[in-house]
Each structure stands twice: as C-alpha cells, then as structure tokens.
Predict the structure of Ferrous iron transport protein A.
Amino acid sequence: MPIIMGDENKDYKILRVRGPEEVVTHLRNMGFVPDAIV
C-alpha cells in the first residue's frame, strides 16, 4: 500500500507518493498530480 501525504492548502491533492511507478501512473490517471516521488 503506497504512503500518501496530502496538503489541503495546495491545488493538487497529493504532494508525495511512495510506491511503485504503477501506483503513480494510476493516481495520475485518476486526476491526482504527485509533486514529489520519495
């Protein structure tokens, strides 16, 4: 399970995503925009 940290003060819903590339791609397809991959 990826670790997702969000910040309500930002325009995008997800700031940092920790997980495999597939997770990041899936989140982008859902409309989330990871700011940093850690």
Q: What stands out?
A: The chain has one domain: 3-37. The radius of gyration is 9 Å.
